[in-house]
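Incident review: delayed structure delivery

Summary: a single-chain prediction request sat in the queue longer than the usual turnaround. Root cause was a stuck worker, restarted by the on-call engineer. No data loss occurred. The affected request and its eventual output are reproduced below so the record is complete for anyone auditing the incident later.

Affected input:
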Amino acid sequence: MPTHVPAEDHGDERGALLAFLEAQRGGLRRAVLGLTDEQAWQAPSASELSPAGLVKHAAEVELRWLETAQQREHSIPRDRDNWHLSFQLEDGQTVAGLLAFWDEVAEKTEKFLRSVPSLDDTFPLPKAPWFPDGGRHSMRWLMLHLIEETARHAGHADIIRESLDGRTAFALVAEERAAREG
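Output delivered after worker restart:
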């Protein structure tokens, strides 16, 4: 799991944006590193957010935007009545299962974004009160939005994880690196 994006060449703008997205995914994945499923679903603050719930939400939101950009029907229907479920454990879900699901989504996202002819290509926005009717966004916007969304929730997860067991992002980076080199 990358912790940052090195200054080295990533081929092009698309490669650099994908590298930044993966670095933010790594931050959120690290927030569940070494936790049991029970620990990962705990919400130790006034918020209902848990590290595992944030992983689930980030994976679902990435999939939803991917399917929107591909102009496909959403495979996980969410609306005002069930949006909260994108943050909650359902039907025997596990952290390992959520991480595997997110890996699949990330692979599909990268494949799709590498396949579009230009980051200036656009897709129609879904119908929602916060989007203009007939609005469109570019693939570049999509990539930047996914980075923003993932980074926001990685920050939430850092705080929640520290509340659970005192381990900070820096400690988790060191732990992950030691396990990888181990």
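Verification: The chain has a mean pLDDT of 92.
Action items: add queue-age alerting; document worker restart procedure.
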